Amino acid sequence: MKATIPQAQLVAVSETNDEQLGRFIDLHSDVKPYSSYQDLLQAPDIDAVVIASSTNTHTAMVRSAIKAKKAIFCEKPLSMELSEALEIQAMLSKERTFFQLGFMRRFDPAYTSAMNRIERGDVGSAISLRAVSRDPGCPPLAFAKSSGGLVMDLCVHDLDLCRWFSKSEATEIYARGSAIRYPELGSLGDIDHVDITLTFANGFLATVEGSRNSQYGYDVRTEIVCTQGALFVGKLEEDSLLTLRSEGVCVPTVPGFLQRFETAYRLELEAFVSDVLENRQPSVGVEDGIHAQRLAEAANQSLVRGKPIRLTNEKEDEQ
């Protein structure tokens, strides 16, 4: 298979669905197929693994990869339960295994440029953030059951960005939301729209909107207000084409996350490979995943209780 990540080669893939695995191997006959990831982890010619399975399988796979002494890239979130994430953190500390978590928005050129401008002092220091993340519609219910829900699956990206831009930790979080358009998500204990407000220890303020109700396309935008200006990341338009008709003006919108963050996905894997080979610390580590997961779990608690949650010493208390 032709390498797209410098200094790395895809040599094996694991998939429990035989039909999907067969289709992949038909296209990439030089990649060795495994129906069991446990068998793949025993292969001596594999140095690193990418875990991109459903959320409810992350913990078990990471545990096994640590024991197999493979460098690990794992998609977010780290687990479905914070206690499991803390267990993984302890294992990584003991085994000194390289581990990077998949918060790809940090690698998106626009977000990276915004951070660079703040760090250079071009717009002063960041004082607040507003994030919007809207999916085009309801995900497959099979996925929703294993994803951790709207907050853990979608908003966790924005919660990580809040920490990244604030350079601080949250002291309070308040979430309000419900299953408005898709009652079938409500039957799973999930929601399709949420508004989250956060206060940070250094005074930084943030608001996060997460939604499954963007019927017009994939809509991810972030506004960072600074002491000497503001930064806007993201756009609705896929390209600059405007179609003018008697019915109105039409603009092509971004269809999905793969199109919007294609470059970011590649750049984060390039960083993963480079950091492993150069023996550097991961750019996004297990601690980042745990902090974001704490915020997501606190937001879900706030949804249930209908009250803000105060965050003190990394523990959540009802206000």
Automatic annotation (TrEMBL):
Keyword Transport: no
Domain GFO/IDH/MocA-like oxidoreductase: 114-231
Top-rank lineage group of the source organism: Bacteria
Gene3D superfamilies, per database record: Dihydrodipicolinate Reductase, domain 2 (3.30.360.10), NAD(P)-binding Rossmann-like Domain (3.40.50.720)
Keyword field: Oxidoreductase
Classification via SUPFAM superfamilies: Glyceraldehyde-3-phosphate dehydrogenase-like, C-terminal domain, NAD(P)-binding Rossmann-fold domains
Residue ranges of domain Gfo/Idh/MocA-like oxidoreductase N-terminal in the record: 5-102
Family indicated by similarity: Belongs to the Gfo/Idh/MocA family.
Name of this protein: Gfo/Idh/MocA family oxidoreductase
